[in-house]
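Help needed: design a sequence for this.
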């Protein structure tokens, strides 16, 4: 059982860049947890930076269109509906 525990810990917990931790409030009995973050591979990191760059370009172009009072080709409301993430 100990061997199984060690293998599970090595494949999950030790692979995390940020481990899950909790802080208990002094004034109440509430616990606050952070998010565990796994390490990214170089390929994932490259993809993430590329997506962030594309999003920045998209927002910059949208701002330019707004400043020039140009009409948007696609309305954001068609895509954000009930999610409200845009």
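Sure. Designed sequence:
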């Amino acid at each position: 059982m100990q061997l199984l525990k060690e293998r599970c810990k090595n494949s999950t917990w030790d692979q995390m860049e940020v481990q899950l931790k909790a802080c208990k409030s002094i004034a109440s009995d509430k616990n606050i947890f952070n998010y565990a973050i796994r390490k990214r591979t170089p390929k994932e990191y490259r993809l993430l930076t590329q997506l962030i760059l594309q999003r920045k370009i998209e927002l910059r172009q949208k701002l330019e269109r707004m400043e020039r009072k140009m009409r948007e080709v696609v309305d954001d409301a068609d895509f954000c509906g009930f999610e409200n993430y845009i």
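The longest helix spans residues 42-67.
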